[in-house]
Amino acid sequence: MSTSFDLLPSFDELLYHTAQSLDGFNEDFDPQTRSADERFGDFQANGVLPFAKKAGKNPRELAQILIDALPPSENWTVDLAGPGFINFTLTPKFLLEWISEHGSDSAISNSAHSESPKKVVLDYSSPNTAKQMHVGHIRSTIIGESIARILAFQGNEIIRDNHLGDWGTQFGILLLAIKEQKISLDDLGDDPIAQLEDLYRQGNARIKEDEVALAKARQELVQLQDGDPENLQLWEKIRDISMSSFLKIYELLDVKFDHSLGESFYRDQVDEVYQGLSKHKICQEDDGALVVFHPEHKRFAKQPFIIRKSDGASNYATTDLATLTYRQKEWQAEQIIYVTDGRQRDHFEQLFLTAQKWFDADKKTLPTLSHVWFGTILGDDNKAIKTRDGQPIKLIDLLEEAIRRAADMVKQKNKDLPEEEVQRRAKVIGLGAVKYADLSQDRTLDYVFSWDKMLAMQGNTAPYLQYAVARISSIFRKVERSTEDSFTHARPPESDAERKLSRKLLFFPLALKQATRELKPHFLCTYLYELATEFSSFYNQEKVMIDDVKAKDLRLLLCASTQSVLKTGLNLLGIDTLEEM
Ligand code: ARG
Fold it and tell me: What residue owns the CA closest to ligand 1's atom 7?
């Protein structure tokens, strides 16, 4: 996904085009410009080195030829370094102009549009009904929401679809238990979802030992899938009970879906899947089941992708194939992003391979398919996080605990704050901390869940970033100015601290680009943390309350821009901020 958030001079383009008219270069030359270590400049092009080596030329000489041919600019200076690197340093005047023009909330969002906006379906959260959301679902919800925001920010059209697991084997087990124990779904007490989950757990334990019960549970599922009215009615009630428990969590997390179609929505479309794949001989019968092999693939040549079980029931794979075609046909999705646990990597790889063959056979264009997978949240013992008695932690309990802990922090700092305000702040801080702790790690890694770490006021945490935002608000209250002012007297940055903070502000588009390219929000987190740290040292070194109007305006401009970028960035992570903390 290319964005035109290229508010920075494109040194890559400049170098490439200049090189084409020079002896010794050709189209293969890739300048490879990236942001540079601040000791060397702001951007560094490393591409001459490998190019010269391949061509058997002296890299330093070749780089010098290129530098000499560059048009002069008021915006940057250039020099040769090391074995053939080209370093660009932005001029103070350029830094000032850039920040004045692009450093406010509205300017950032106006300029963040994508060159080629896409219609993207985001399939995330997607818990299974009849069970509570556990801590495992938090990652899909938080990461999915952040990616949705990041892509929407750049002008893409996002369809948020909560692909509920509401048509799976759990219903066979649950229906059997409900019927055998003559349970009424209308009076399950005040925590109905917990009751259902208990029933399911008992039932699940039973079918593992009792083959007759297993067969009965399977039969209940087949009956449900065949449209048996009694089973359908029970199923609908279970779905409603589940949905209202999920909604509580989504409200807390500030997540709203455009659709919650779920697996059941596709139940009448599974025949099309069987027929489509059979017609093109993409699937085959195997022991009574319908399966897809991928002979060209190392593992999937032998490991089947089962699309219809031997008892005739559809499964996760069938509904996912139906879902994919639906999203392409009805929504014209150009990209579909699935956010799940890494343990589903095989499923999605097989799904994507199968879909590719099907679409090719039908001469249709397959949307870009991306599996955004993540690792496990671990407890202190480095194993998947559990309660003390070994149960999965309920997400709602975890979120409530986050708010409680944050409320203690808020009360400690502000003894006389009204309770309502304590709660408001605690929500922002507590939920922000949980979200940020998840997003700030490379999503493919496991991480250890630690309250102390995520709520710390120092380090790469949400409270640290939120505090930077609040601190800047308090500066503006003191000088009786607004962050929205235009700071027309500002002079270009001079001191080391002014310069460093300025250049950091310019790198926001780069961080956003990287997070977008890799669908990994942690790149944004790392950037925001570095920006907040840079701000902190700037603020320790430079006074803002001074008489020199030009210096004061520049420093206020830097404060205002820092706050804008922090707020915008945090919002893309789904995290709120406060005026006071
Ligand atoms: N319900 C599944 C689970 O809880 C996740 C569904 C992900 N989306 C999909 N289209 N398969 O693991």
Answer: 126
